[in-house]
Design goal:
Layout lengths: L1 H19 L19 H16 L11 H16 L9 H31 L6 H26 L4 H6 L7 E2 L1 H4 L12 H14 L6 E2 L2 H29 L1
Antiparallel strand pairs: 1-2
Helix pairs in contact: 2-3, 2-5, 3-4, 4-5, 4-9, 5-8, 5-9, 8-9
């Protein structure tokens, strides 16, 4: 009897401590209001995407080839100026600028990918294996970045909405959500987690350890796998044919 009473008292004490902490031990960090994630990771990756666009052959770029990269730099500068250190909800125009920036990066890379695929099919691209592999690799890597940005921007309403912790249901199920004991108590998905998701989906052509839950997430991952598969197959097949 004394042991049962002691156990009950211990449970009651734990509940009281949790209530005093505002329920932080009950509600995981990714479901409550938290501080915005640092901006450096997404900024560095966007800059890499812009540099990769400038390194592509100009004949594959949207003409004039420098227009979209310049616009992307301007929009990125606006985001940094409006929210320099952390991705936090401040004004609505910051999200609109971010969406416009991702749209431009997607347009530039999609244009280059289509031009490359059409050139390979028509026999006007891929005269040398080395430059072809570099071009295809640049487009593939930019594609990884593009989809990572879209996953990051749309999961549970985007990074600024996730900071508020208002949306209960996630669009992507990470391992730490299923097994919270494997991660720190303050863990929540950040941009590098979505970059990893995008990379594994582009290499495995299917989900690995991060599962899509919503329909739009499934369709977007399917689209990414399709684009990656077509790019890799055509570029590698053409390069092998040249080397032979």
């Amino acid at each position: 009897m004394n042991d049962r009473m002691s156990d009950a008292e211990n449970r009651l004490a734990r509940i009281e401590r949790r209530l005093e902490d505002g329920g932080r031990d009950v509600v995981p960090a990714w479901r409550r209001a938290t501080q915005g994630e640092p901006r450096w990771a997404v900024t560095a990756v966007i800059l890499l995407a812009v540099v990769l666009q400038l390194m592509l052959p100009h004949r594959l770029a949207f003409q004039p080839y420098w227009v979209l990269p310049v616009l992307e730099f301007v929009l990125l500068a606006g985001l940094i100026a409006g929210n320099p250190r952390r991705v936090e909800p401040r004004t609505r125009w910051l999200r609109l600028v971010g969406l416009a920036l991702m749209g431009l990066i997607s347009l530039a890379n999609g244009w280059a990918a289509v031009r490359l695929v059409l050139g390979l099919v028509n026999g006007t691209e891929g005269k040398e294996a080395g430059p072809l592999l570099l071009t295809g690799g640049g487009i593939w890597l930019t594609n990884v970045i593009v989809f990572a940005l879209w996953y990051w921007e749309w999961d549970r309403g985007g990074p600024m909405a996730r900071v508020r912790g208002r949306q209960q249901y996630a669009d992507f199920l990470f391992v730490q959500m299923q097994s919270p004991e494997t991660a720190p108590a303050d863990w929540e998905p950040a941009f590098l987690d979505y970059l990893y998701l995008s990379f594994t989906n582009s290499t495995a052509f299917s989900p690995t350890d991060v599962m899509p839950l919503s329909r739009w997430a499934k369709m977007l991952m399917m689209l990414q796998s399709s684009v990656s598969l077509v790019t890799v197959v055509l570029v590698v097949a053409r390069a092998v044919n040249i080397l032979r």
